[in-house]
TrEMBL record:
Any single Gene Ontology cellular-component annotation: cytoplasm
Pathway: Amino-acid biosynthesis; L-histidine biosynthesis; L-histidine from 5-phospho-alpha-D-ribose 1-diphosphate: step 1/9
Key word Nucleotide-binding present: yes
Protein name: ATP phosphoribosyltransferase
Origin species: Geobacillus zalihae
Keyword check for Glycosyltransferase: yes
NCBIfam families referenced in this protein's UniProt entry, alphabetically: hisG
Amino acid sequence: MLTIAMPKGRIFEEAVELLRRADYALPPEFTESRKLVIDVPEENMRFILAKPMDVVTYVEHGVADLGIAGKDVLMEEERDVYELLDLQISRCHLAVAGLPGAKMNEIAPRVATKYPNIASTYFREQGEQVEIIRLNGSIELAPLIGLADRIVDIVSTGRTLRENGLVELERIAEVTSRLIVNPASYRLNGGDIERLVDRLAAVIPQP
Ligand SMILES: Nc1ncnc2c1ncn2[C@@H]1O[C@H](COP(=O)(O)OP(=O)(O)OP(=O)(O)O)[C@@H](O)[C@H]1O
Ligand SMILES: O=P(O)(O)OC[C@H]1O[C@H](OP(=O)(O)OP(=O)(O)O)[C@H](O)[C@@H]1O
């Protein structure tokens, strides 16, 4: 049996839709219950529903064979998992943003983000030394109230930036969700996993 860690939240619906398009008969309880472990015996599969940032942890520890995770999450923490497939869902990008015209503080430049590793690598590569301030959400607030000069965050429609009077300054990376696998499980269950990959690959929307 294959165990798949699914990200709750905004990726979930698109991921379920993709699996259904690939002909996986997911029961209604998938979208209609609060259950966190859902067995689909007809497919010899078990799904666990986790926070998006935690999916990689379940897969790395081998309690899930496979998982679906945003490229942003995979970039932020180097984990011992393989990326098998770009699912082309939940498309967005990572960007640097700030108040229009506002310069970085020359003495103590600060960047607020939910992605401290991505942000510090990016600014280091630009040759800029900045202090990274980690926040858990509402990142756009930071420049508005003077906590930071810049933010590094996800941009999708651009609405949150716009409605808060911020502008995108630099694009860091494109983000879509990926199918990831535990390396040991891949060696053990290669055949089953390849069949799943083939079924998904056949229905992935073209970029
Ligand atoms: N507009 C968006 N904002 C944030 N994440 C997005 C967006 N569009 C797609 N994504 C993808 O969705 C994932 C985040 O999903 P979600 O917002 O449900 O989780 P979360 O922010 O970790 O959870 P929570 O808000 O409950 O802390 C990201 O890792 C990213 O890959
Ligand atoms: O470009 P947009 O379509 O406006 O989407 C981008 C926003 O969505 C995410 O926040 P989320 O809704 O996850 O809330 P959060 O601030 O709690 O992270 C992200 O952190 C941005 O704030």
